[in-house]
Write a structure and sequence with these properties.
This is DUF1015 domain-containing protein. The chain is an alpha+beta fold. The chain is built from 14 helices and 21 strands. The strands form 5 sheets. Strands 1, 4, 5, 6, 8, 9, 10, 11 and 12 form a 9-stranded mixed β-sheet that branches. Strands 15-17-16-19-14-18 form a 6-stranded antiparallel β-sheet. Helix 4 packs across helix 7. It is globular, with a radius of gyration of 23 Å. The mean pLDDT is about 90.
Amino acid sequence: MAEILPLRAWRYSEEWTNTLEDLVAPLFDVVSAKQREMLYHHPFNSIHLSVPQGDNPPVQAQKTLERWKNEGILKQDDLPGIYVYYQYFRLPGEGEMRCRKGFIAQIKAYDWSENQILRHESTIVSAVNDRIDLLAATQIQASPTHGLYEDESQELEKYMDAAIASPLYEVEDYQGVREVLSVIHDARVISRFLEIMKSKQVILADGHHRLEGAIEYRKQQKDTFPELKWKGSDFHLMYFTNAHGNDLKILPTHRLYYELDLSDEELLEKLSQWFDMRPFGDAEELATYTFQRKWSFGLVLKDQAWIIKFKPELWSQIKPELPDSLRNLDLVILHEVLFHQILGMSSEEQRKSKNLAFERNFSRCIREVREGKADFAVITREIDLEQVLEVCKSGAVMPQKSTYFYPKALGGLLFASIRQDEFESNYEAFFEKY
């Protein structure tokens, strides 16, 4: 049973509504260094809460938050609500406008073992610890994680469509996406959201580190307020989208490798033992190349490019202990063969190594290699949503940075407090039968 609750969100006060585009920020793990520096220049941008600076960043964020509350920069909504969140976007080369529909609410920070929220990627311990420290200091969540649920009836969409006609905000974000936020206060409608979602498993699309931080913080606070049915420290802010009938797009994330000990010739020779190799004329043309066959990749070296296709007769050598849903994935093949078998990196080393980088921007991959900064780039293709769902349900996890759900949710549209006096509300009213 996935327990969700409405929330009394903290939001920028009305006087800031017309300049909201200057206050929102990308998620902490996708914001580039240059973007970050630009956003820091605005004293009230939400990045000061999501990626704080200073000698003690969590304490700095806590002080900033209290100042913003005291000065009325942020105000808490009087009534709890379900916040409807639509993202309108186009993909490069497309004229069609897409719309990803969803809603933001609070969900209990279930431990992975409870099987209510399913993950598909592993996490990095240091990044999780940073999120725990920040959450403990501020007791605020500046951006939602992204969860998928499956509901073929699409009953909730009719309520969301009605609400989005009267938006609180409309902003264009750093991705060129039109972000629209509205709210539902009707207790009857909210109770229907809670009723439908209680039978759903949630598949975490984005935000593994933030959710794992919330899970650990819930464990740390398990003995606080033992008399209360609903505790703020138990809950986590999430953006929910229906996996059925929605514009859910997953973009590829490419791989870059630095400080290679092998020559190009040695690398190609080792790869040829596992892959069929075909020279490719211009590396930049890989941006429009359609990888029709699974287990195929683009390989970019400084002065040459290749299409490499894994030899299917060798598949039996790829981690037979894993479920087939995982062994069949392109990135499992890539990480096991190239980074483990050829370059000798264990799974743990792949997660922590500074030699291996993940890059969504194709042009940046080419530039890094051409300028001699990276030794090679591997161009990957996108994963299918059905594959993500299958892996999640198997209980397995993919290599890190296997998915890039697009567009990303935006930080700063609303904030969720888990401080008990700010979290408390008459939640019982939403569980009454209407």
